[in-house]
């Protein structure tokens, strides 16, 4: 199958669909390929052709149906070659990676301090990076060739980014050979002359060697002078120009380097920690000399998903000392714990030496790398005879000190009692103050509440009186309406005698009498106070800090036990 199909299979697995869901459904196939997998219409058309071909092969018996439904699953071939077919990641044995790393480091060291590999850590293959890698393969020029395992020296910062699964950008640990691209080297590559610092300095600063699977593709060959001209262009411009010319990478034969301009064209596979020995002081006494050359690094088992940024301690061969028979240190007692006889700096190494000036136990590893010699360190047996009298004096002084310190302990207890007393007094004082404040607040609250209720009741009484007068006037009007009904009825009927005339005129007299108007006063409501009393209270109740003064008990200025050494 093509690289385009493998890229589609990976993205299809992420989308949640399976190939059997798309069988005999071109509409769903097109929708999933375009919307969920992000392919262009031209790529979708090519994928449909391959899909139809696979389905026909399955129906004709040329292909097992189970294979069709499991196309997205691929196996990795395992071999010891330096390259592998495109889109498939090879599994490399530890010995192969170490051997190739040591070859590269040998060329990197040149005539300087020799470098060696300390440990190989195999990196996991994140789905995001592998999908991007295969997606890039699908767009490279045909034939894409083979995937090669190439090397790059990376800083601790870059290693942390690789550990988090991020792709390597061109400006991360850029190489002076081509600052605008990502420069990687083959096993015999000459990378040292393009590093800003010496390889030994980089190794001591925690830089490591990282092996990448790189899709080299069609490569254009340039000289060092020619490729340096690319520094005037951006990485994107270099990539577009190279791609339009029909190439995927640049090869520099003089230094066996490969330069790519697309981060998805590579994927990290292994991290190899680099070991560079420190500068060693040569001892003056021939009775205490290293018995071997600087240690050669041993091969470590390959570990997946290890801690990438961690500095790894190498395991050197033992440094030999030529002691006299009389001063050979005795074997430690079995009751002594291993932690007491092991070096704190180099795990698994027993302490054998003593530095009187630093008062420090040393192992052979410390002696070899940290610049000690017979002029500034002794064997443990000799050091015991020298240090024991001083330790005895210290114990005597310390016993006297522990007896005299009781008076100081009494001062501490007195000071604590002083603190307790002051704390109790301040709490009681605070409680009394807040009682008075709360009482005044309660009185103020009752007074203000009474004012509100009194003013409100006065306004309600005034409104009720006015309403009563209005209702009395309305009742009088209704009464006169009733009294005028009968006389008006007789008048309309033409029955006008003396009695009816008097009744009609009496009602008329009452109706047209001078009515008193009912005055309705405006009412008011309580909306606040004559001063902003609550803001004043809140301002007075702002948080405050406790003040302190020196305690009554006089304590010593310091307790320094260094005088016990004298």
From TrEMBL:
Keyword entries, A-Z: Coiled coil
SUPFAM superfamilies noted in UniProt: B-box zinc-binding domain
Domain of life: Eukaryota
Coiled coil: 405-480
Region described as Disordered: spans on this chain: 313-333
Bias kind Polar residues: ranges: 314-333
Protein name: B box-type domain-containing protein
Organism taxonomic ancestry: Eukaryota, Discoba, Euglenozoa, Kinetoplastea, Metakinetoplastina
């Amino acid at each position: 199958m093509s690289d385009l199909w493998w890229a589609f299979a990976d993205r299809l697995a992420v989308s949640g669909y399976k190939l059997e869901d798309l069988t005999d459904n071109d509409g769903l196939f097109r929708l999933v390929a375009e919307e969920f997998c992000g392919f262009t219409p031209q790529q979708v058309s090519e994928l449909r052709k391959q899909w139809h071909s696979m389905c026909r092969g399955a129906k004709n018996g040329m292909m097992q149906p189970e294979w069709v439904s499991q196309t997205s699953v691929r196996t990795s071939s395992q071999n010891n070659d330096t390259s592998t077919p495109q889109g498939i990641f090879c599994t490399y044995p530890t010995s192969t990676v170490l051997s190739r790393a040591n070859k590269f480091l040998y060329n990197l060291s040149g005539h300087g301090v020799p470098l060696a590999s300390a440990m190989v850590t195999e990196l996991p293959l994140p789905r995001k990076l592998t999908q991007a890698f295969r997606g890039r393969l699908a767009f490279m020029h045909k034939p894409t060739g083979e995937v090669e395992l190439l090397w790059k020296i990376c800083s601790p910062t870059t290693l942390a980014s690789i550990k988090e699964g991020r792709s390597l950008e061109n400006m991360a640990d850029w190489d002076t050979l081509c600052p605008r691209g990502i420069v990687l080297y083959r096993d015999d590559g000459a990378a040292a002359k393009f590093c800003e610092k010496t390889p030994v300095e980089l190794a001591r600063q925690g830089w490591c060697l990282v092996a990448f699977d790189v899709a080299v593709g069609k490569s254009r060959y340039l000289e060092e002078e020619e490729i340096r001209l690319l520094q005037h262009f951006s990485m994107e411009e270099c990539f577009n120009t190279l791609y339009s010319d029909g190439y995927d990478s640049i090869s520099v034969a003089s230094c066996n380097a490969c330069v790519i301009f697309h981060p998805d064209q590579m994927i990290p596979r292994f991290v190899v920690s680099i070991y560079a020995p420190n500068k060693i002081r040569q001892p003056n006494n021939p009775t205490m000399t290293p018995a071997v050359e600087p240690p050669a690094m041993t091969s470590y088992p390959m570990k997946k998903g290890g801690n990438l940024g961690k500095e790894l301690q190498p395991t050197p061969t033992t440094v030999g000392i030529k002691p006299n028979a009389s001063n050979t240190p005795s074997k430690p007692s079995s009751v002594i714990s291993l932690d007491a006889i092991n070096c704190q700096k180099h795990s698994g190494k027993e302490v054998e030496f003593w530095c009187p000036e630093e008062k420090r136990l040393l192992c052979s590893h410390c002696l070899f790398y940290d610049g000690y010699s017979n002029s500034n360190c002794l064997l443990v047996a000799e050091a015991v005879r020298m240090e024991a009298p001083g330790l005895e004096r210290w114990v005597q002084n310390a016993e006297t000190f522990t007896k005299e310190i009781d008076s100081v302990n009494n001062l501490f207890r007195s000071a604590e009692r002083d603190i307790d007393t002051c704390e109790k007094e301040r709490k009681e004082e605070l409680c009394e103050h807040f009682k008075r404040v709360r009482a005044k607040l309660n009185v103020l609250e009752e007074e203000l509440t009474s004012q509100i209720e009194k003013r409100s009741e006065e306004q309600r009484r005034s409104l009720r009186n006015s309403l009563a007068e209005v209702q009395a006037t309305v009742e009088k009007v209704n009464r006169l309406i009733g009294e005028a009904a009968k006389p008006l009825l007789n008048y309309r009927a033409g029955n006008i005698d003396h009695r009816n005339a008097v009744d009609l005129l009496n009602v008329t007299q009452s109706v047209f009498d001078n009515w008193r108007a009912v005055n309705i006063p405006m009412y008011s409501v309580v909306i606040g106070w004559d001063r902003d009393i609550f803001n004043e209270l809140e301002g007075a109740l702002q948080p405050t800090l406790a003040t302190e003064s020196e305690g009554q008990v006089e304590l010593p200025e310091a307790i320094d036990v260094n005088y016990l050494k004298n």
